[in-house]
């Protein structure tokens, strides 16, 4: 299965335009948006051949208050999660405290969903973002990447900086500022390559909500091919 997945991704990449180099002009916004979108879509399809662990950590006032570990697989094109462990065990409270707990839980779920939109943005949104963005060729530690800056990737209020491989079209890192229920949030996403396949994945996603003294960290690891 690994060889078939690698072949699938290779065929897609061969169909893409020539890579951008530091000696060339900056890419056309719309075209590079399509290139990156195509690579992400092909990568996500190939990841359906794997399972992995996701660890979600909630930090409040500098202390870890919750850690949840889930097994993730792709089913019908969408992530499907199975709970492995949760510390501490969640106990639903009653009355006023229960309603407050439900409100906080709903807010956290919305924040996690919002962060996921920046980690793996929808294809149409990504292309539209690139069409309006500005570009710069990376230097120093970012040499070999194209820096893309713009707004409106997930919502109109956001500001996003993304670094994309100039030869692979793979996302390398994303930093963003956005809002949820009127509150400002700062986030970052780091991508990593899978050692045994020509694929990449979201290694970590960190969302900071300063007004609530909250930091939400999501990490993916332990990828295994489906037998």
Question: What is the gist of this entry?
Answer:
With 227 residues, the protein is α+β, with helices and mostly antiparallel strands.
Written overview of the protein:
The protein has 227 residues and is an alpha+beta fold. The chain has one domain (2-220). It contains 4 helices and 10 strands; from the N terminus they run H-H-E-E-E-H-H-E-E-E-E-E-E-E. The chain has helices at residues 2-14, 29-46, 95-119, 123-132, and strands at 50-60, 63-75, 78-87, 134-137, 145-151, 159-165, 171-180, 183-193, 200-209, 214-225. It has a 10-stranded antiparallel β-sheet with strand order 3-2-1-10-9-8-7-6-5-4, with helices on one face. Strand 1 and strand 2 (63-75) form a beta hairpin. The termini are close together.
Strands, count: 10
Instruction: Return the average pLDDT rounded to an integer.
Output: 85
Percent helix among the residues? 25-40%
| Count of DSSP-assigned helices | 4
Global structural class? alpha+beta
Main beta-sheet strand count, sense and barrel state: 10 strands, antiparallel
Based on the model shown, name its key terms.
disordered N terminus, 10 strands, globular, ten-stranded antiparallel beta sheet, single chain, 4 helices, 227 residues, alpha+beta, 29% helix
